[in-house]
From TrEMBL:
UniProt keyword list: Hydrolase
Source organism, top-level taxon: Bacteria
Organism the protein comes from: Paenibacillus zeisoli
Domain AB hydrolase-1: 21-251
Protein name: Alpha/beta hydrolase
GO molecular function: hydrolase activity
Family classification: Belongs to the AB hydrolase superfamily.
């Protein structure tokens, strides 16, 4: 069972730290998107990268449209990876929908996670005015799905630069477009529905794991209002507005992403030892 899980999700492990750090990629991507960030933590952590089923080098034959019809199936995969490796008290780093998958897993099994690092998370992409700004109207998303159905590669070419931003660096959007095009269109279509039509707003207050929210300054996919909403609804959370722009700062601004994660983890470590130090004085 454990070996099957690790093969299913193409789990890759590096480092020999006593604490594990798990990286979860976003929609249409794979674990290769962490190549600018994950190596910075290998000396201090055991880093664990994986691909969501249907993405990257995962076992596509394991894809089940019922299990993966919503995000809970992906959260179950994350839990099973932790169980297969015997992990507890990990640092979880998730991007976009990967962040929401980590949130759902942490609610179900909080002992598996010690900190959550959430990069561009969104509990709801659709606007629900006037109470909530998600960034999209339903007609916007239905138009994207229609393009996806009629011309998948055209959809990938359109969406990649929108997601990535940083138009002065077209190589970033080109890489994301290539990543989109590698995913089976049928699987991508269902994952897109599970992602963009989800509503996980009621789940946020259930999070008991301390969380860092990294919010890009100019992110059309998860705008500033979304980052603020997540911050106000997750207890014990910290919101950091980045200088980075676009929805993929771990690719476009890896140095800032690394620095902010390191500073947050250091601050949490310091806070956890402070009462003991005071008691010894």
């Amino acid at each position: 069972m454990a070996e099957d899980t690790l093969v299913r999700n193409n789990v890759q492990i590096q480092g020999s730290g006593t604490t594990s750090m798990i990286f979860a990629h976003g929609f249409g991507c794979d674990q290769n998107m962490w190549r600018f960030v994950a190596p910075a933590f290998v000396e201090d952590y055991q880093t664990i990268l994986f691909d969501h089923v249907g993405s990257g080098k995962s076992d596509a034959s394991a894809y089940n449209p019922i299990r993966y019809g919503n995000l809970t199936g992906y959260a179950l995969d994350l839990i099973e990876i932790c169980e297969s490796l015997g992990l507890r008290n990990t640092v979880f780093v998730g991007h976009s929908v990967g962040a929401m998958i980590g949130i759902l897993a942490s609610i179900q099994r909080p002992e598996l996670f010690n900190q959550l690092v959430l990069i561009g998370p969104s509990p709801r992409y659709l606007n629900d005015l006037p109470e909530y700004i998600g960034g999209f109207e339903r007609s916007d998303l239905e138009g994207l799905f229609d393009l996806m159905d009629k011309n998948y590669f055209g959809w990938a070419g359109y969406l990649a630069p929108v997601v990535m931003g940083n138009l002065e660096r077209p190589e970033l959007a080109a890489e994301l477009e290539e990543s989109f095009c590698k995913v089976n269109p049928d699987i991508a279509r269902q994952f897109a529905e599970a992602t963009f039509f989800a509503d996980n707003r009621e789940d946020l207050p259930k999070v008991t794991t301390p969380s860092l929210i990294l919010q890009s300054t100019d992110d059309i996919i998860a705008p500033l209002e979304v980052g603020a909403y997540v911050y106000h609804h997750i207890p014990d959370s910290t919101l950091q507005i980045m200088e980075a722009t676009g929805h993929c700062p771990h690719m476009s601004y890896p140095e800032e992403t690394i620095r902010l994660i390191q500073e947050y983890l250091a601050s949490r470590s310091s806070a956890s030892t402070r009462p003991l130090e005071q008691g010894l004085v």
